[in-house]
């Protein structure tokens, strides 16, 4: 069975964010991820991790803005990253720098940089050079800090006009950038919605060394992975098999919305799928 990390932005929604660390540990998780840490001082987050014996394995660089209020406002306003947007290079760079500061304090080995939305009136090919240039800079900067940078294909139903939608495109970008610490965040929920043939994509891409992290959720409702059209027990076996052959030892983030979310104990009640 793969190693599972609790996504604290989605799991335990009935609890205040800082109380979710303890809840995840009590449910047997050894690692956590979440979207954005910036509303909480990094030292406070590190203390929660230490107190509950948890590893921080992933979080996102800011989607826009460079301080906590503007980051929250950017997300609420629909910003989904700035890596592909010409004219926002300075903001992108400041966001990556902030993420790397948090990664240092949290001992987090990887950060995800969201690609952003294709600007109105433009096509994907026109903004790709900006995306590649920003990723090349971010990967070099992260390498100085011993961190990986991840990019994630996201389905256009959840985020219309998101720049990166497909696994093959993500891996083409990684090859074009040519940085060993730039990797793909392979979210099987998004992959199934856009492409399907998920098991064969795991078999194709995991041995390349360019997959840095997995995420899971049921399709199409994005609930627990034992609900919906994906048969995750089979995919977990595929990940185990391929990992054993190629030496991959990463994490699978549980980035789903609990069916009983908001109810006391709702997340814990839905964890039977791990058995």
Describe it for me?
The chain has 275 residues and is an alpha/beta fold. It has helices at residues 20-26, 42-51, 68-76, 89-106, 124-144, 167-177, 188-194, 198-205, 232-246, 266-269; strands at residues 3-7, 31-33, 55-60, 110-112, 148-151, 182-187, 211-216, 251-254. The protein has an 8-stranded parallel beta barrel with strand order 1-2-3-4-5-6-7-8, surrounded by 5 helices. The longest helix has 21 residues, at 124-144. The mean pLDDT is 97.
Give the secondary structure arrangement, pairings included.
Blueprint: E1 3-7, H1 20-26, E2 31-33, H2 42-51, E3 55-60, H3 68-76, H4 89-106, E4 110-112, H5 124-144, E5 148-151, H6 167-177, E6 182-187, H7 188-194, H8 198-205, E7 211-216, H9 232-246, E8 251-254, H10 266-269
Parallel strand pairs: 1-2, 1-8, 2-3, 3-4, 4-5, 5-6, 6-7, 7-8
Helix pairs in contact: 4-5, 8-9
């Amino acid at each position: 069975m793969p190693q599972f990390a609790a996504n604290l932005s989605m799991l335990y929604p009935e609890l205040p964010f800082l109380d979710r660390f303890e809840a995840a540990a009590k449910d047997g998780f050894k690692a956590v991820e979440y979207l954005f840490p910036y509303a909480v001082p990094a030292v406070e987050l590190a203390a929660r991790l230490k107190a509950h014996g948890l590893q921080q394995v992933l979080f996102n660089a800011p989607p826009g803005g460079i301080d906590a209020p503007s980051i929250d406002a950017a997300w609420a306003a629909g910003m989904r990253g700035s890596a592909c947007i010409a004219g926002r290079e300075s903001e992108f760079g400041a966001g990556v720098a902030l993420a790397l500061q948090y990664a240092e304090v949290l001992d987090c080995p990887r950060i995800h940089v969201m690609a952003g939305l294709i600007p109105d009136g433009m096509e994907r090919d026109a903004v790709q050079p900006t995306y590649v240039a920003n990723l090349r800079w971010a990967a070099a900067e992260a390498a100085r800090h011993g961190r990986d940078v991840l990019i994630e294909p996201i389905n256009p139903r959840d985020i219309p006009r998101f720049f990166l939608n497909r696994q093959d495109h993500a891996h083409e970008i990684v090859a074009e950038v040519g940085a060993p610490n730039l990797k793909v965040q392979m979210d099987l929920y998004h992959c199934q919605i856009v492409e399907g043939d998920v098991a064969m994509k795991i078999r194709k891409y995991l041995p390349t060394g360019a997959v840095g992290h997995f995420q899971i959720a049921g399709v199409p409702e994005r609930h627990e992975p034992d609900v919906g059209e994906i048969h995750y027990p089979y995919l977990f076996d595929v990940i185990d098999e391929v990992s054993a052959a190629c030496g991959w030892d990463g994490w699978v983030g549980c980035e789903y919305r609990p069916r009983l979310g908001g109810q006391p104990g709702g997340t814990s009640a839905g964890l039977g799928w791990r058995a």
